[in-house]
Amino acid sequence: MVGWSRLWSPVGLAVLVGLRSQLRAYNLVDTGRPGARLPVGTPDEHRARSVDGTYNDLGEPRAGSAGSRFGRNVPLPRTAPENADDICEPNPRLVSRRLLTRREFRPATTLNLLAAAWIQFEVHDWFNHAPQAGNPWHIRLPDGDDWPHDPMTFARTAVDPTGPDDQPPVFASTVSHWWDGSQIYGETADYAESIRTHDGGRIALDDVGLPPAETEALLDPNGQAANFWVGLALLHSLFLREHNAIANRLASAYPAMTDQQLYDSARLVNAASMAKIHTVDWTPAIIAHPTTVAAMRGNWFGLLGERMSGRIARFTDNEILSGIPGSATADNGVPFALTEEFVAVYRMHPLLPDTVEFRSGLDDRVVARHAMADLLAADVRRHLTSNTAADLLYSFGRAHPGELSLHNFPRSLQNLARPDGTPIDLATVDIMRVRERGVPRYNDFRRALRMAPVTTFRELTVTTRPPPNWRRSTATSSRWI
Q: Which end of the chain is least crowded, N or C, by CB within 10 Å?
């Protein structure tokens, strides 16, 4: 009724605990797992991460693995696709141009650009939808649009063909949903094997801290290879080097460990580090409210705090007091899977700026300015070779990402060349992805989360200080709230 963000932090935390309990009880929807059921595992058999993400849940080995379905946070009947006449209304290209296009760069001054690179780094670990062959989307251009082709076309999302016929379509991820570092360790057995030295558990890295260029041919051209850029490469290089540092430390402490044991253990430690950074550092930074900062730290350390957890480990099995890591596994009756709604809210392309300044870490001097188009996959190794990792990390630490708001979508991503040279408007694609995958429209989404629907555009915009003309409401536009 009041909202946790308006309450004194201890009271707000109590509200968040209650909300989390309700969301777990009512908003975890199982969409099933395709394929034959694997035999139940035992801890002794599965102490390492598998390439495909199987056996992270020993009782439900296919849960969260590559090829498994995305779950839902709303009841399945509410995920039915809209009919052909409605799904393209309002026209997604018109929304892209009128509401999303960046007029001037609006920085998020509480963050640095590493935060933008970080979320893409994590998203590549968590999920990837496969494109459907044939029958692409056709988006008619609004009047006066200068796009080179009318209609605009791009691939639909492939539907999981093993889904039940009497329910809305379901979709599968080509990578594991788990926090397992698959974005650097590989999503296929061939790639994972090709980057290993098979000596001391280490990974083979070139002079810029990336696997040798010839291994890139093994990457999915529609996956992270298509979205690689300098910011992402920095984090790949950092955590690949970290893997080798962990492996060296383990080899020194435990000389009897084999190459495979060192590799598996270093991967577990490295992936846990990523999970901790995201929970304790990134999320409290992106949602910089005192209550959510305390809540996210509580998720990791428990409300008893880091000092207490460091001194006496788990004081109790209660996850609220001692944190989630190390607590009893509980999936609330729904085997683990990321959800389509989760994917939708992690679309954060406005974080990317139009240009990035490269600075010297010694004296803060600007040594170069690069447009985003000059930082993409084809130019990554050139930039990593001509600049030190320290200078690049410093430069990203000094730069701001974009604010997550309307009128702040990078223009470079609204005319982005895919690996085959085909241009796409990523803002238009983002809108259609949410619609085609059955993520409910705004008010229906609110109802599914037991929140009151808004009735006017004034309610939507009252806290965002928009221009007055944003609040004009017509019968047509109100239909799509």
A: N
